[in-house]
Specification:
This protein is α/β, with parallel strands linked by helices. The chain contains eleven helices and 13 strands.
């Protein structure tokens, strides 16, 4: 049984509420359509339609399965779309965060060309990259995953128009000073790259524990807008050290708040690409893994 063909028939009948109209829509004879529905019902173990009335109705069983059938057909069409794109173009479209280091991305493009691969880089926020990868617009993408298990981990800190006075900054030090008007303190700005529910909620909880007023954390409309507010002194930008350095903005690591981005390349690609992308996003080595490697080497030589 061709499951996709039979599911397409089921969905068509469910939408048209008519075997004849569904057959006309699919361009097949009605007896063939009826046989497909019957075969699918036998395969699934229950009736999909109530045929006892003048106008057929979908059964409760059929209603439960319908959204899943539609999802399978939608995913199959996405797969066909990706396959068509792969056949018509040799270009690998790579999705990366908007605040990547441009020279590092240039190394990605050059190294790929040396290996006979044409890479086109497209910068998109995290959620947009995930969506574009799912619908086939992107061939490859750095996608966000929990930092603790990520191949690439990127520490975040705060950038400001004026130096903090050290390499680290505590959220408690950002509490409003006495006599400061409500809302006058700079907002903690999150770029669209970090506009993920779990990430933003983690920062808001940390800010609340530090005694910062509710609403101090705000998601900016774009990375450029967040940087502009920061340079103007009306915001403190949550970003990587590399991004702050490239834009000549003082930066300090957040102390006591282990905010990190986690990235992995999807789908999995060759080994040479991930380290180059790590340099582009500003990832740091996993010291725990390095320590484990040292212990293993010492054990081997013992």
């Amino acid at each position: 049984m061709d499951l996709l063909v039979h599911l397409e028939t089921f969905v068509a009948v469910a939408q048209e509420r008519s075997f004849s109209r569904a057959a006309e829509l699919l361009g097949i004879a009605q007896p063939l359509l009826s046989r497909r529905v019957k075969t699918l019902e036998q395969e699934l173990g229950n009736e999909l339609f109530d045929r006892s009335r003048r106008q057929i109705e979908i059964t409760r069983f059929g209603g439960l399965l319908l959204p899943h059938a539609q999802d399978v057909l939608r995913r199959a069409e996405q797969l066909r779309s990706v396959a068509r794109s792969a056949q018509t173009s040799a270009v690998q479209v790579l999705g990366v965060p908007p605040d990547c280091d441009a020279p590092a991305l240039a190394r990605v493009i050059r190294t790929a060309a040396e290996r006979g691969v044409v890479v086109s880089v497209q910068d998109l926020p995290a959620q947009a990259r995930a969506d574009a990868l799912a619908d086939g617009t992107l061939t490859l993408a750095l996608v966000r995953v929990p930092a603790d298990a990520a191949p690439l981990a990127v520490p975040l800190g705060l950038a400001a128009a004026t130096p903090f006075g050290g390499r680290t900054v505590h959220l408690e030090s950002l509490r409003p000073r006495r006599g400061t008007a409500s809302g006058a303190e700079p907002a903690l700005l999150v770029t669209p790259e970090d506009d993920l529910p779990q990430f933003v909620e983690q920062l808001r909880r940390a800010a609340a524990r530090a005694g910062l007023p509710e609403g101090r954390v705000r998601v900016a409309s774009s990375t450029a807008a967040a940087l502009a507010e920061t340079l103007a002194g009306t915001g403190l930008l949550l970003c990587t050290e590399g991004f702050a350095r490239r834009n000549q903005v003082p930066w300090a690591l957040l102390s006591g708040v282990p905010l990190r981005r986690g990235y992995q390349l999807a789908p999995e690609a060759t080994d040479w690409l991930l380290p180059l992308l790590g340099a582009a996003v500003g990832s740091v080595p996993d010291r725990r893994q390095d320590a484990d490697d040292v212990r293993v080497r010492l054990a081997v030589h013992a």
